[in-house]
Amino acid sequence: MRNLLKAHQQFAPFADAWLGSYLDSGKQLYCRDNCSGCCHLAVHATFPEAVAVAEQLSAQQTAELAGYVDRIKKAHKNWGTLKSYLKEHRQKLGPCPFLNQKGSCTIYPLRPLACRALLSTRPAAWCTVDFSELNSWDKQAYESSLDRQVVAWPTHYVAETQDFGQKLEKTLLEAMQREKGWALSGNFAIMVWLEQTCHLSKVTSKEECHEILATNDLSSNLLLDFSTHNQR
To answer: Is 142 exposed, middle or buried (0-12, 13-18, 19+ CB in 10 A)?
Structure first.
């Protein structure tokens, strides 16, 4: 948790400085409270970020989380590829369980780095578009409108904040690897649920973690990643 707090403290001034420079250049970002388009995407985060949220959930948030995980359990066996997982998540599973009915994030102070780093250079409507369904003319018009020096091509999201967020995520996973001998990342909401219901942070081995995932019908490489994160 100390490493997580440090990561948040490092990310905030970096993002503020980047945003200030970007806005001073006369350009615009479109992220606003209640826009919530990106909240329909599958959020990939680190396990320490999930632990921080699991400790703070209300009864209502817990109920919404349980419903989301139940939908994942029923659907994930039909996902053969990462592309199908991301598409199905966006179109059928519903938004993040921590989004309220007004479209606001209910865990905003503790939101993961992946959410903090996702800054849109296009209006919110673009955050819900399935680009595989665009015709060639619309896709070409969209791509030509992007500033390739700013975005993580071919998306309209800012590259620098995502790169820095991923760098901080790596430090969190390396710290977890050192402390526990294994490191976990993946679907953020599922990890929150696993911590709240199974106390996964108390588990001492990766093998025991795999047993818990199997018991809860969540054994999918698309959802969770136990890859070794070597120190450098």
So the answer is: middle
**Burial of 31: CB neighbours in 10 Å, binned 0-12, 13-18, 19+:** middle
Alpha-carbon span 216 to 212, nearest angstrom: 6
pLDDT above 80: residue 157: yes
In the block, tokens 């990462």 appear at 82
Q: What is the mean pLDDT of residues 25-36?
A: 90
**pLDDT tens across 218-228, in order?**
999 999 998 75
Contacts of 187 (CB under 8 A, 6+ apart): 42, 43, 44, 72, 223, 224
| Contact predicate 141/129, CB 8 Å | no
Concatenating the DSSP letter of every residue in 48-103 gives HHHHHHHTT--HHHHHHHHHHHHHHHHHGGG--SHHHHHHHHHHHS-S-TTB-TTS
Give the E-state strand segments of the chain in sequence order: 44-46, 185-187, 224-225
Specify the pairing of strand 224-225 against strand 44-46. Answer: unpaired
pTM of the model: 0.92
Give the relative orientation of helices 59-75 and 188-198 as an angle to the nearest 10 degrees.
Answer: 110
Nearest to 116 by CA among 224, 13, 230: 13
Mean pLDDT in residue range 96-117:
95
212 close to 88: Cβ distance less than 8 angstroms: no
Paired strand residues for 45 = 186
Amino acid at 52: A
Q: Rounded to 5 degrees, what are φ and ψ at 29?
A: -110, 155
